[in-house]
Design goal:
Number of strands: 0
Strand content: under 5%
Number of helices: 4
Largest sheet: none
Helix content: over 70%
Radius of gyration: 18 Å
Amino acid sequence: MKLIISTIVGAIIFFLLGWLFYGIIFADYFVTMKELMRPESDMKWWALIVAHILQALILSFLYMKTYKGESPLKEGFLFGLATGILMSVPYIFYMWASYKVTYKEIVPDGIILFVMIFIVGIVIGLIFGKKEKPKVKETT
């Protein structure tokens, strides 16, 4: 059940953070990248939603398989940090190598990706919480 909840919550957070960072805070900064993107009227919103769900599901699944049952905040922090770095650093190089953008545009984009994954990683850790220790049945 925690996998489903963390996937749904993670997808919603990805979507909201994307809207906040790309649609509001840094909308003017990424204006030069607009020529690489679809016009808003032609956006494939369903595909963006599916991508957020899949990304949250994969992160939730990986967290579920690797967490140790310690502090949810600490483990979520470390998980978000590790997965954020593992996903955002190669992304920067892939995008810089493949698209007609400068590093001044793509590095902030990668940093935003890192921050989004980092935040979702912490939330996933908090949702999973501590592992329940098996109760030992006392015999009399």
